[in-house]
Amino acid sequence: MASLSSPAELSRRGLLKAGGALLIGFSLAGKAVAQFGPPQGPDLQQIDSWIAVHADNTATILIGFVELGQGATTSLPQVAAEELDLGMDQVRTVAHETEVTPSQGGTYSSSAIANGRPQVQRAAAEARAELLRRAAAHLAAPIGALTVERGVVSVADEPARQVTYGELVGDRKFAMAMTGEAVAKDPSQYRLVGQRAPRRDLEAKVMGTFEYVQQKRLPGMLHARVIRPRGQGAFGSPPHIVSVEANGVLDNPRVRGLVQEGDFLAVFAEREWDAIAAARQVQVEWDIPASLPDSEDLYAAMRDKVVETNVVLEEGEPGPALLQASFAAQTPYQAHATMAPNCALADVGNGKARVWASSQDIYSLRGTLAGILGLAPTDITVTYAEGSGTYGHSLYDDVAIGAALLSQKLGAPVRLQYSREDEHGWDTFGPAHIGEVSLTCDEEGRLTNYAYDGWQHSWAFVETNDQLARGTPARGWPMGASRGVNPAVCGGMYKIAHRKLTDHVLAAEDWLRGAWLRSPLDLSFAFTSEQAVDILAASYGSDPVDFRRRNIRDERWQGVLDAAAEAANWDGPQLASSDGKLHGRGVGLGTHLRGWGGAVAEVEVDPETGKVRVSHLWGALDAGCAVNPDIVEAQITGQLVQTVSRMLYEEVHFTPEGVTTLDWNSYPVARFSDCPEITPVVVQRIDQPSSGAGEEVMAAAAAAIANAFHAATGKRMATFPFTPERVKAVLT
Fold it and tell me: Which ranges in 282-395 belong to alpha helices (H)?
């Protein structure tokens, strides 16, 4: 690819001098993704797309889910090793990459094990069946007479007659399609699934030898920084460049210049620090629409700007109402707040593109890049490179688009990393929410009527760099596909005679750019709904755990409720106080989509300072068959720590012009000293399909914290985070 040292070499790309800097303007062909059809990867019906057996009697397992910290690169090989009768030391994986690893769908909604386990299990069972067929022919013995241990196939009554998988296949392809006839193991035969196994990625991360995407380098690579206003405004009202003043930027010979297309502006240099310094030098006049309400006026504005109202669920017939309880809450925008700002690398040229990114769905990203770069999906390779956490749809696709646009224009590999200000100010936030719930019970304490009304907007469909560079209009996801009121969280854990859920829909374009944030909106739903359940339990004169047991829907919900309560030695919400602080316990139920979660929280409140501390959290999770209980316990722990942070600290603030919480001071998160004692409980159901374990107990924990606050103080919080100012206002 062309060097950038000579402007003459770049003249065909439309270089021009502007304000003493090298300014590159470009236009994009922008073929629609639909022109190419859905991206294709390895054929999912071929065994070779999933498993390769090597001559040394080991196997490579090709998996289509990425490692986001949830342990998928350990648990899915564990599933394959179980079916193949191999040891964990005999299986490995490769980097997730288009055209190399199968497309199993995006790694979100707790799908890696829920969806990935049956797919990997099926492929491994097919491979084992074929290996046994070949072994039977090789050993001249019936398949029923064969046993397998660590990839060594033996005749049961003549163990000296044996052959290894490596000898049967050994670095050659299976070259056969799935038959659909292979039978997976019965859970009673499991040796590995359901057992603890060390995470594959942990040692390198602990020892500091793991290479994150932020640390990756390419030969001849340039570093780039985007230049934007300090914080975004409304999704549908992007900022516009009025003028750019770049005098002095090229005083440093390692700074190569600026790239501008539309309102997309970036500086590039040989060294990262030079790009950072140059970005700070460039003076840009922006036209920034005052498109938002102030933070303090957010919820009133949300009620005023409803575009449609839809009943998303109504079931059953209204029942008697001896007692009634209502509760209303409002919850803020919250950020993904990744530990390190997002980063991506791209090498685009000669009609091909190679991109390294932390995307949750590399095949979807490849399709997006195809439309933006004007290339066919088959000419683009996207390799997953792990970042430092994401917790949902953060800026990993946006930064990949920016890196690819720049590399295509500059004719050189480009590394683009966002600043902390970029990450906080231009995140795709978890949307704000208003919830109102009303429920009733009969004289036996049975829930009879439940109504939940929710105000929220959908998610953004267009990334910022696409919007700024190409002027792509803002588009939101259809509401039903992007989290309206969630039936699983809003009363879904109880037997209720009549239930009605209503969405008051806001247009995504009118608000901050939104996307899924771990357990999307479920903390808000449970925070509202489960406080109303506690209010009704108190009106009925029942202990909150007993009241839930009276109304529980099924044994799975009963299981997590009992597991959390028993682990916490629940004997009521009230706790004695002898240190001048107020203490209480609360319980909550909740989920995301797939699993069952229950939690108990113990909190202490300092009435003088308004400081709230969660001292202990018990979280119980039924994820069906927990392939690796150690990993599930770690997931519960991570969920509960993050829930504490979101309940006590995290809130996005903004003015009409844009976001103002741009760093860790203005957007604080929980510190180590804030972390409670945590007791994770895995409700193992080895004979059930695996369900989600990445976010299913967070909603329950949010509700438990809210109910514990009430038990301690006698007051209810109608919003979070529980800042000292809010707490003191409620207490007084």
Answer: 298-304, 362-373
